[in-house]
Amino acid sequence: MTRRVQYEELCEILARIFESVGTPHDIALLLAENCASCERDGAKSHGIFRMKGYVDSIRSGWVNPAATPRIEDVAPSFLRVDARNGFAQPALAAARSLAIGKARKTGACILTIRQSHHLSALWPDIEPFAEAGLIALSVVNSMAVTVPYGAKRPLLGTNPIAFAAPAEGRAPFVFDMATSAWAHGDIQIARREGRPLPEGIGVDADGEPTRDPARVLDGGALLPFGGHKGSALSMMIELLGAALTGGQFSTEVDWSGYPGAATPLTGQFILLIDPALSGGNPFAVRASEFMTNLSAAGLHVLPGERRRRNRAENLKNGIVLTDEEWEQLMTLAPIPGENANAILER
Ligand SMILES: NC(=O)C1=CN([C@@H]2O[C@H](COP(=O)(O)OP(=O)(O)OC[C@H]3O[C@@H](n4cnc5c(N)ncnc54)[C@H](OP(=O)(O)O)[C@@H]3O)[C@@H](O)[C@H]2O)C=CC1
Ligand SMILES: O=C([O-])C1=[NH+]CCC1
Fold first, then answer.
1. Which of 117, 119, 139, 250 maximizes ligand 2 atoms within 8 Å of its Cβ, making it the mutation to test the pocket?
2. Ligand nearest to C-alpha 217
3. Is 254 known to be catalytic?
């Protein structure tokens, strides 16, 4: 059985869960909207199933949900943020308008965030920059669960890269993808649902190829997407996400003393470019032309379109949750089931 939950109601429930474990109201709202947006857009690998990880990370003391980020304005085009063991999203929110101002003034801004926990998709971080007319690129490293191409043991995170660019008269061009063959979240969902993986996604504890998600998760590892190419991109993300920001490499994430912790404590890199300084015709016009050419070449789905379709459908009709998903949420919710149901009926 399934039920439909309005986006705003889901945000309210998630915010209460965050608040119940000591997250200040404003940060709870921000994280709730971020997680509910993933669910709303069908980005299930970072939707509500992640709530237990957030809660356990906070309860274990691994992350400080009330941390106040410290912003360091180090150069005309360079901003550093120390999240101080808090979540990456409030750190980004604190620096967002300063970063936009620098990008508009100097043409570009590099924003690095360190000592930050990121358990979500990257597109919610950068899509708003493109909506504001800027080009944005972001990467974050995670935890060492991916074996570099040709290596024997995991050293890389699942390390996503996301890019967003404005396009005239249409939604921005946005892609967001793990550099491992699959996101770790999708492997967890496959295990929960008892689904075998396709070939080429992961290996077991002996380094042998396996299609069993449990064997990948329990001592095994993921492979990079696209062999040595995805592997090289993922290496770049370790360098930008950790070495440049002052954060930790994925191998340095040690949450062993924090049972249940699931939020990697690493770093995030964001590059903003103001396309107002580009040559020739305006960038957004050229981007739109390019997207039209892609469609004319027979491409039916541009990156980001599936998400936006889900968003439109789910904002109109409500987000579909299975009974199992709802029950899992209710075990975390500080509101008794009856009150939660009242929220749903409103
Ligand atoms: N915080 C962290 O440390 C980590 C976060 N993640 C997150 O996990 C999420 C999922 O990653 P991943 O599983 O690799 O993403 P997907 O493989 O599902 O999608 C990658 C990109 O390709 C696009 N796409 C998918 N299918 C098609 C298609 N048939 N035609 C055209 N475009 C297509 C998607 O658009 P669309 O969005 O519209 O589907 C998306 O932009 C990401 O949001 C990522 O940020 C991953 C690893 C670590
Ligand atoms: O799905 C994934 O690979 C991850 N999401 C957050 C940390 C790693």
1. 119
2. 2
3. no
Catalytic residue status for 125: no
CA of 76 relative to ligand 1 center, distance in Å = 33
Return d(Cα 96, Cα 110) in angstroms, integer. 11
Q: Is 117 known to be catalytic?
A: no
Residues carrying CATH 1.10.1530.10, the chain: 1-59+304-346
pTM score: 0.96
Name the segment(s) of the chain with CATH classification 3.30.1370.60: 69-180+224-302
Contact 49, 188 (CB under 8 A): yes
From 3.40.50.1100, 2.40.128.10, 3.30.1370.60, 3.40.50.1820, which CATH number describes the 69-180+224-302 domain? 3.30.1370.60
Q: For the segment 101-144, what is each residue's pLDDT rounded down to a tens digit?
A: 999 999 999 999 999 999 999 999 999 999 999 999 999 999 99
Residue 237 beta carbon below 6 angstroms from any ligand 2 atom = no
Which residue stretches of the chain are H helix? Answer: 7-20, 25-40, 51-59, 88-106, 123-131, 184-193, 213-217, 228-238, 283-296, 305-317, 323-332, 337-345
Atom of ligand 1 nearest to the CA of 300: 30
DSSP state of 45: G
ipTM reported for the complex, 2 dp: 0.99
Q: Which of 41, 56, 176, 186 is catalytic?
A: 186
Judged by phi (left if over 0) then psi (alpha if -120 to 50, else beta), residue 84 lies in left
Q: Which fold has domain 1-59+304-346?
A: Hypothetical Oxidoreductase Yiak; Chain: A, domain 1 (1.10.1530)
| pLDDT tens, position by position, 223-248 | 999 999 999 999 999 999 999 999 99
Pocket test for ligand 2, best of 156, 158, 234 (most atoms within 8 A of CB): 158
Q: Which of 209, 214, 176, 169 is nearest to 195 (CA)?
A: 214
Atom from ligand 2 closest to the CA of residue 264: 7
Which of 37, 45, 120, 231 is catalytic? The answer is 45
